[in-house]
């Protein structure tokens, strides 16, 4: 391999890491360097998020240790059969880069993943060593997210959690059959076993912390995972069901969705076109319905069509409400919180403001308008003291009335 400068390798390995969406740094415990000789912080202004236009977090130094890989996953640009430029960092170089970027105020933490080089255990040891150098030799108090390798020895994965704020293991694809077909070197049961052990380690560390003040931290920001959307034939209903099971079985903080992106020299088993990015967005919306709005997975799946796909032109909450119009309209002055959360156009904050306001007065439609971002979407599903939608809720063209208007953008518009 030709001699490469640090900047050339950084360009290669930062670009190779862009396909991993699970780099958010929320949820970690407070830690700072005030009153110590350390560096970094995870509280206050410590982790300040910046987001790319497609919604991905770019506030962390997000790189691969190496894009060499002995696996041959069809969807991965870094697979062993891919003809891409290869590069590699040492753990010391990763630590030096992180500290250098941090001191320049470019980043507030590190997201570190890697291709599999030599063996899973060897690669996992290198990832841990980079985190160890930062934590032990430089007393780095900033955020660290390590992507762990399910094929590695469980003790190594455990060590990663002792240094990292968050750990993650990608399930990669929504179905076992899709994983077998597109990632023959990976095993679904092995991935879930590793996630289960990490869940147990997090629970044990949390219990120990309550009993013993100086008990070691273990991944205080929890674990997350990521699924690729559109690389196989899995439907949105399959993906929602898988995500729900992962949340329930492994206590994940987040399931991330990443729309499949065609890669150079792609395998013939992959689709030729990427799925629409709005599909990824609809899956995130369905995820929020389950996590914050009280929807059961089966209810989210009911918003999908007969083909198991969520509609792209409207959000899943509106799709569900249109299918179950008999549940509406709701009396905004009497309805329970869990019912109001199902009204299209009402978010958690808006519902809480409505509940607080109606303690003091009977709400009118104008009052609701002041408490929400848009009253147009809400009107067909609510009653107030001065408003009833009458036949509006049952109109055959209600979907067309509420769907966002499509507009053609102009390249050279002023």
From TrEMBL:
Its cofactor is [4Fe-4S] cluster. SMART domains: Elp3. The keyword S-adenosyl-L-methionine applies. Gene3D superfamilies: Aldolase class I. Residues 53-296 form the Radical SAM core domain. One of its GO terms (molecular function) is iron-sulfur cluster binding. SUPFAM superfamilies: Radical SAM enzymes, RuvA domain 2-like. Pfam families: Radical_SAM (PF04055). Keywords: Iron, Iron-sulfur, Metal-binding, S-adenosyl-L-methionine. NCBIfam families: rSAM_link_UDG. This is Putative DNA modification/repair radical SAM protein.
């Amino acid at each position: 391999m030709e001699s490469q400068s640090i900047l050339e390798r950084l360009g290669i390995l930062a670009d190779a890491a862009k396909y991993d969406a699970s780099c958010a740094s929320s949820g970690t415990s407070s830690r700072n360097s005030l009153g110590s000789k350390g560096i970094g912080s995870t509280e206050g202004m410590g982790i300040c998020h910046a987001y790319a236009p497609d919604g991905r977090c770019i506030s962390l130094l997000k790189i691969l240790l190496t894009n060499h890989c002995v696996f041959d996953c069809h969807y991965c640009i870094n697979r062993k059969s891919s003809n891409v430029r290869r590069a590699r960092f040492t753990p010391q170089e990763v630590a030096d880069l992180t500290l250098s970027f941090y001191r320049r105020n470019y980043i507030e933490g590190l997201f570190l993943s890697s291709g599999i080089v030599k063996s899973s255990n060897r690669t996992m040891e290198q990832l841990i060593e980079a985190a160890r150098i930062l934590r032990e030799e430089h007393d780095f108090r900033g955020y660290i997210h390590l992507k762990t390798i399910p094929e590695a020895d469980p003790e190594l994965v455990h060590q990663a959690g002792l240094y990292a704020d968050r750990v993650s293991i990608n399930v990669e694809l929504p179905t076992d059959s899709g994983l077998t077909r597109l990632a023959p070197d990976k095993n679904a049961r092995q991935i879930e076993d590793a996630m289960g052990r990490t869940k147990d380690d997090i629970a044990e560390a949390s219990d120990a912390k309550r009993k013993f003040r100086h008990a070691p931290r273990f991944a205080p920001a929890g674990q997350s995972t990521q699924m690729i959307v559109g690389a196989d034939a899995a439907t949105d209903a399959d993906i929602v069901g898988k995500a729900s099971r992962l949340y329930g079985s492994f206590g994940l903080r987040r399931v991330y969705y990443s729309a499949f992106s065609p890669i150079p020299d792609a395998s013939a088993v992959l689709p030729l076109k990427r799925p629409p990015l709005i599909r990824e967005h609809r899956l995130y919306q369905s995820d929020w319905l389950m996590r914050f709005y009280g929807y059961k997975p089966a209810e989210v799946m009911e918003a999908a069509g007969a083909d198991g796909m969520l509609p792209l032109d409207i959000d899943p909450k509106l799709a569900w409400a249109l299918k179950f119009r008999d549940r509406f309209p709701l009396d905004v002055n009497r309805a329970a919180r869990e019912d109001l959360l199902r009204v299209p156009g009402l978010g958690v904050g808006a519902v809480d403001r409505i509940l607080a306001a109606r303690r003091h007065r009977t709400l009118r439609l104008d009052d609701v308008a002041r408490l929400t971002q848009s009253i147009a979407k809400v009107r067909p599903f609510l009653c107030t003291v001065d408003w009833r939608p009458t036949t509006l809720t049952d109109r055959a063209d209600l979907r067309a009335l509420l769907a966002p208007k499509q507009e053609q953008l102009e390249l050279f518009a002023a």
